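Final report, closing paragraph on structural work. Over the funding period we assembled a curated collection of sequence-structure pairs, and we close with a single example.
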Amino acid sequence: MSTVQISASDVNKLRQQTGAGMMDCKKALTETNGDFEAAIDYLRKKGAKVAASRQDRESNEGVVIARTSEDGKKGVIVELNCETDFVAKNAEFIAFANAIANEAVQNLPADVDGVNALEIDTETGRTTIGEAITAMTGKIGEKIGVSKYAVLEGEKIVAYIHGNFRLGVLVGLNANPAGAEEAGKDVAMQIAAMNPVALDKDGVDATTIERELAIAKEQIRAEGKPEEMVEKIAAGKLNKFYKDSTLVNQEFVKDSSKSVAQFLTGVDKDLKVTAFKRVALGA
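Its predicted structure, as stored:
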């Protein structure tokens, strides 16, 4: 046990440096004989122990952050999870998620592991995001972590966050004419609401097409239609699926007289969506 006198100001100083609780800071300084660097290490190890003890816990709450670079040509979506809605709404947790997204959009790592390997500024100095997550886990006592990460690049990328950080969308446009930002936001809201399966019919995977055709044929036969009509009617139903489920062919939610593609050409005759990403919390 330490014989060094630990003052309230020492405890407060360590608390300000690490963000850890008062009693944890007092114990860390006591255990390390008032050595601040050793006390910080002590708290980090405590965080690692808490993280290990929470590994089997479900972390289905959290926030989704969509962010673009300053030049508007790159965008990322990051989902940072926690265990409870209470923590998900905490301003510090949201700020931490934003800091991760900011670092990710500057560096564009390939995957979640790449995100965790990036370095970030914290109260105790610069460290990897993975280490910062461990420290945050120890601080809040909940399992947290980055579970999803998406990246998009193009001539114009627009980001949109929906429903109190519950869903993030990135929209890639082929150009950046006047009105592109607002148009991109409208398309992003369309994606959030309608959850298209692909950009256009060419983007629908073969498995989905086969499944839709099989369902359509089963429905047609159940209705007693002649077998020679099944293929033709099924093809019509597939075209209806493309119209309802692919982004550029969907009815534009703000004006059902237009498709999304027609809405964009109304903004600029050559404006098109090149790609999109949609990440929903827990989905």
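The longest helix spans residues 227-245. The chain has a mean pLDDT of 89. We thank the funder for supporting this effort.
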